[in-house]
Every structure is written in C-alpha cells, then in structure tokens.
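Each field is set out underneath.
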Amino acid sequence: VQLQASGGGLVQAGGSLRLSCEASGGGRTFNNYAMGWFRQAPGKEREFTATISWSGTRTDYSDSVKGRFTISRDSAKNTVYLQMNSLKSEDTAVYYCALLRPLRNWGSRDPLDYESWGQGTLVTVSS
C-alpha cells in the first residue's frame, strides 16, 4: 500500500489545518490496520504525534498536541485525517503518516513499528 499525505501549508499561530493521508495500491488492506501520524522538525528526530485504531474507536496523542489535534479515519475513502487547531510555532514540521506493522502493539509511539511511510507534508506556523 502507498500512502500520500497532503494538506500542509503556511498558517499563522492560532490557526488550523487539516492533513489527509490517502492509501492506494494493493498489498495490505488499509482498513485492517492502525495508522499513525508523526512529525519531524528541522534538526530533530521524527516524533510520534497521534495514532488511531483500525476501527477508529481508539485514539492516542502526544502530550504536546493533546486537546488541539484530532485524528480520524474514513474507511470508505481509505483516508486518515489530522485536524490541527490552535497551531503553535513549535508545530512547524514535516508531517508523515504510516501504517502500523503487523503484530505490533496498538498505540506504539516508536517509528520503527510503522511502515509504508508517505512522503510527508510540510506545515509551517508563523508566530
């Protein structure tokens, strides 16, 4: 499966953006697996941002985005979303979506437990 992230851009602090991650291609069935969003700021390691279970009933967030970001999925569209509100300058990063590897524990925050990384979409928050 291939993942395509989109929706990034330039926004002022306090603003909102919605990122999308669309799955396509064969291989693993997208709707059977948990998905994660990660981000990587310049000069920093990739860090966990949010994850959602295959059913969409469970979600988890990093402390830095909890209460401001919302992850969701639309199985009919093979798409996972990340709604980002009250954006801060420290949210500036390239955002990536990925698929949780088979047999990995749901809720994992380790990038090594994920695969099929999309190309990333840049979010820039100006203060």
Q: What stands out?
A: The CA atoms of residues 89 and 125 lie 5 Å apart. The first strand starts at residue 2 and ends at 6.
